[in-house]
Amino acid sequence: MKYKILCSDLDGTLLSSKSDVSKFAIEQISKIKNHTRIILVSARMPSGMRYIQESIGISNQPIICYNGALVLSGQQELTSVVIPVNLLKEIYSLCTNLEVDLGLYYANEWYVPLTSIRVEKEIKYTKSTPTFQSTLITLSNWEQRKIGAHKIMLMCTKESADTLMPLLKEKFINQLNLYRSNDTLIEIAPKSVSKLSAIKLLMNSNDSLEDIIAFGDNYNDVEMLENVGCGVAVANAREEVKAISNHVTLKNTEDGVAHFIKEHLVI
User: With a threshold of 0.85, does the pTM exceed it?
Assistant: First the structure.
């Protein structure tokens, strides 16, 4: 079937390495991009997505950043939903006596209190650079600027994440999306947005969800994969993600998205 829109997650899905799209994937996307809109959908900040857009040759398309909290078309902001500073302060308070550092993201700004192995990996893989300053200074500055966070990344130990996650759920389950991406990372986003809500925002009046094919690997991709016309999980996806998908392709490290495009979408 010919799809009008192809949406793909990046890390663990379209990216065959930690930071780049393979030559094979670029070749396959180039064969369909003139008749299929290619939209990148990620938890990343804009700067961590722009270079990928450019390498694929789809800079004319919008990007969905921060799992849908920020949607950009070029420099134009199509939607922006943030976590307000009063909630950020409450989250910071819960973290105070635990071994946790807060990564705070707004638009193309990224703030961390200090460097770490996790931060250095993020710098390397997303080709983005943070501002190093105390979380309290960041929150004070944001309060003055009347802005909030598009995303929070809580960088924990396994033990502190085990302690913190139930506390966060108890206090914020109705206000925030809480997502434990691995044993030591907790990502937090506004409750009202998702990858699917952002995709709906970008649909034309004559588009339907049936016209969309999407690729993903993790829990934050489930709603998107379940609701589009064709949801495809990579083989390295979580079992729950594979279970709700229409198809399972090869692993991201084996260019699963590109192989699926070649076999099913190239005319």
Answer: yes
